[in-house]
Specification:
Number of helices: 11
Distance between the termini: 52 Å
Structural class: alpha+beta
Number of domains: 2
Largest sheet: 5 strands, antiparallel
Radius of gyration: 25 Å
């Protein structure tokens, strides 16, 4: 790498690093404000000291019979991953994806372990979205669109594997008026990898082979459903990558090119030492 090319790379890397740090600070503030908003919202809905099951039911009750909500003439223009929208607009609380998003955000703020579950049709398209909540060591199914915890005829909460049984599924939906029988559990995923811009690549089989259980071991719902958290993670990754690239370029300049450069940390340490050291009086 020539000196001119190095200087261009050095300046571009430093500029991008500054931008990524600013983006990191902005997104951290954004995520903090979202969490504060959700904490206040959930505190107003969920009784203090309630059991996990009662916390789930309190959120569903609020979704079913809460106060009057705003209505937007054109809801397609709303940011559907913004909690302030999903929690406050009537139209968004009636759509399975955004209703589940609202439930997941409130449940997390109520210290519940939750994740989304996508039910797929035979052609691998999403036909419905529900939530899983970990209660008593089991991932039970909650349907925020219909405001219910799915249960069998004995009133026992059900998991996705139990709902795969056609008889159990029929028992569960019989308790929910108007529940479509098409929302069955033969095929489901947590992440729709075919939505990624990798046309023609069968990414899921590759991930399943290289990283078995990758969908279960990481809570993808928070990353994919909350825009502020997604931006925060991207900014953090960009900052780390650019910092490491800057360190590599600095090493190359010092060891290979032997050209002088501005040593930020040495100047900062010298300035700190000068500021905090008591001068000697002779």
């Amino acid at each position: 790498m020539g000196k001119n090319l190095f200087r261009i790379s050095w300046r571009i890397t430093n500029a991008l690093l500054v931008m990524s740090v600013l983006a990191l600070l902005y997104s951290a503030g954004w995520e903090y404000s979202v969490r504060r908003y959700l904490d206040g919202f959930s505190d107003a809905i969920v009784p203090a000291g309630a059991t996990s099951e009662k916390r789930v039911q309190a959120i569903l009750d609020w979704m079913r019979t809460g106060p009057p909500r705003s209505e937007e003439t054109s809801p397609t223009g709303l940011a559907i991953r913004d909690p302030e929208n999903t929690l406050n607009y009537e139209q968004l609380l009636t759509v399975c994806g955004t209703a589940t998003n609202a439930f997941l955000n409130l449940a997390r703020s109520s210290d519940l372990e939750v994740r989304r579950l996508l039910l797929l049709s035979s052609d691998q398209n999403t036909k419905h979205v529900v939530a899983e909540v970990q209660l008593n060591g089991r991932w039970i199914i909650v349907d925020p669109t219909y405001r219910v915890i799915l249960r069998n005829a004995a009133g026992e909460m059900l998991t996705r594997d139990e709902l795969r049984n056609q008889h159990t599924f029929a028992e569960a939906i019989a308790r929910v008026p108007g529940y479509p029988a098409a929302y069955s559990y033969e095929n489901y995923v947590h992440v729709r990898v075919n939505k990624l811009p990798l046309s023609g690549v069968r990414l899921r089989p590759i991930l399943n082979r290289v990283l078995p259980g990758w969908e279960e071991h990481l809570n993808w719902s928070l990353l994919l459903e909350r825009e502020s958290f997604f931006v925060l993670i991207l900014a953090a990754i960009a900052t780390i990558v650019l910092f490491l690239l800057r360190q590599a370029l600095a090493w190359y300049a010092d060891r290979k090119l032997k050209i002088p450069r501005f040593h930020l940390w040495s100047h900062v340490s010298r300035a700190g030492a000068a500021f905090f050291t008591t001068p000697e009086i002779k």
